[in-house]
Design a protein that fits this description.
Number of strands: 45
Largest sheet: 14 strands, parallel
Structural class: mainly beta
Number of helices: 6
Helix content: under 10%
Length: 528
């Protein structure tokens, strides 16, 4: 069976770099002195030793390099093709930090030995940000593509293992590491595509886990796992006090004569935890307790299967990094099967960007949105039309009188009304497409008489507020439409009144002022 994740991950396989012979480490130890084997750095966290060749990588297998908590950083893709590889941490346990810098190591080949892998034994070490492609390791003891044996206080983080083969004629083989043991050990954000086999304790990510404290989290497996002995698991073969969270296996799990599981084959002491994890049910026949949930292909492709999980289908948010969820499920990603968001962030999984759909411009008939307007008969009032393709309008008239068009755009038109007689009026619109009559578009009313000779209305702005002023209209009803909001005073209590409404500063608004429901004035302003 071909799985979507494997197909995506395989695109990261890079061309092999030029192979150089492996030589012994520099006489200057691990390069602390000038003339060391690396491209630079002093081994500190701020200035790690820089590794760009197979020779430099092999030079780490010295007491001086492995046991002094040094930091190493890979700066180029490295091929180990044709080399007889000695695992780093064979004679001495590695306790430093190796940062793969999201570069690739290809063609690791190793046959024979009790602790086999790119690294042998690591103790209190960190290996992170590494792509390991086309690795083949086999031995008689602990076996893992990245590290054979991961001891207390160690971390494996952001690792991608593609097209690997890990085999042990003994126990404890895993796609990433054969065994993890001790307190404060963490296997996090690991993607494995491999075939794994062992006499016992075979796991897609790790063969055996013995935690006092620590977790296996945000990990995935595709490929196959088999064991001729008791335990065979999609993520972990045998666990003691293990914590597994946010894990999934799309692999084929066979063997495990007594214990076999899609995520975990066996919890050795019953104190372990498995949460938010799933496996493809068609890939395994469970022989042990169901520590995680088996899913069909249809269930995996349906986000509603995971309603209680931290899962999104928002591709745009995952791509731009704004997603806060742990998982993404989308039909365009990994054949619709859920993947972990970190796999996208690290470039291990590709999420196609949503197609940008630009609506075609409106090309239909002229459309005018105009409810009946109440206007005063004295003229000078501005009439605003909104709609589509209004730029096609060539003339407007009311009662046979042409209106003066002040502004004309595709979606909006403004015209000045002439002096009109009272009553309902039709608005006649002439355009390049013909003539349109908007019946009873205007209700023309006589302008209200002011209660005093100095009666007037006005509007202004201060501190984000719009203020409407009325003088000489005591007892009248004042209504003002401010943008999309209304101010209404049923009866003005005095000869001079001011009412306000907050709109915010820097806003262009049209203020329409009505006295006794008759439009008196329209004032356009920008709020201060």
């Amino acid at each position: 069976m071909k799985f979507g994740l494997r197909a995506v991950l395989s695109t990261f396989i890079l061309a092999a770099s030029v192979v150089v012979p492996v030589t012994s480490a520099s006489a200057n130890g691990c390069g602390v002195n000038s003339g060391g084997p690396f491209d630079g750095g002093d081994g500190s966290s701020g200035s790690p030793f820089l590794v760009s060749t197979a020779t430099q990588l092999a030079s780490m297998e010295t007491n001086a390099c492995l046991t002094n908590s040094y930091h190493f950083k890979q700066t180029a893709d490295i091929s180990l093709a044709g080399l007889s590889w000695t695992p780093l941490g064979t004679a001495f346990e590695f306790n430093g930090t190796y940062d793969g810098n999201f570069k690739t190591i290809t063609d690791l080949s190793l046959t024979g030995g009790t602790n086999v892998g790119l690294f042998g034994t690591i103790n209190g070490a960190t290996i992170k940000n590494l792509r390991l492609v086309d690795a083949s390791v086999s031995g008689s003891g602990f076996a893992g593509a990245v590290a054979a044996f991961t001891k207390a206080g160690s971390t494996l983080d952001k690792l991608m293992i593609v097209n690997a083969s890990v085999t042990s004629t003994g126990n404890n083989a895993g796609g990433a590491t054969g065994m993890t043991q001790g307190a404060r050990s963490y296997l996090s954000k690991i993607s494995v595509d491999a075939s794994v086999s062992a006499a016992g304790n075979a796991g897609g990510v790790v063969g055996q886990v013995e935690f006092v404290s620590g977790t296996v989290s945000d990990v995935s497996f595709t490929g196959s796992v088999t064991s001729t002995g008791q335990m065979s698991g999609g993520i972990v073969g045998y666990g003691i006090a293990q914590t597994i969270e946010n894990a999934y296996s799309l692999g084929t799990i066979t063997g495990g004569t007594v214990y076999r599981g899609g995520v975990l084959a066996r919890d050795g002491n019953g104190a372990g935890v498995v949460t938010n994890s799933f496996f493809l049910g068609s890939g395994v026949t469970q022989l042990s307790s169901n520590y995680a949930t088996a899913k069909t292909t249809l269930e995996l492709a349906d986000i509603s299967t995971f309603t209680s999980w931290s899962m999104t289908d928002d591709r745009a948010a995952v791509i731009d990094g704004s997603a806060t969820e742990t998982w993404i499920s989308h039909s365009a990603v990994n054949s619709g099967y859920p993947v972990l968001v970190w796999q996208v962030d690290a470039g291990f999984v590709t999420v196609p960007a949503p197609a940008v759909v630009t609506p075609a411009p409106y090309a239909g008939p002229l459309v005018v949105n105009l409810a009946r307007e109440v206007v005063k008969s004295s003229g000078g009032q501005r009439l605003t039309l909104k709609g589509y393709r209004l730029n096609l309008i060539t003339g407007l008239s009311v009662d046979g009188i042409q209106l003066n068009i002040e502004s004309l755009e595709t979606g909006e038109l403004t015209a000045v009304l002439p002096v009109l007689s009272a009553g309902l009026k039709d608005l006649v619109i002439v355009s390049s497409q013909g003539q349109l009559t908007h019946q009873d578009a205007l209700l023309v009313v006589a302008a209200p008489e002011a209660t005093t000779s100095a009666a007037k209305v006005n509007a202004g702005s201060f501190k984000g507020y719009v203020a409407v002023y009325a003088k000489g209209y005591e007892g009248s009803r004042l209504s003002a439409k401010v943008g999309n909001g209304w101010i209404v005073v049923p009866a003005l209590a005095s000869d001079f009144e001011r009412v306000v409404q907050f709109t915010g500063a820097g806003v262009d608004v049209a203020v329409r002022i009505y006295i006794d429901r008759v439009l008196v004035d329209t004032i356009n302003l920008t709020t201060k």
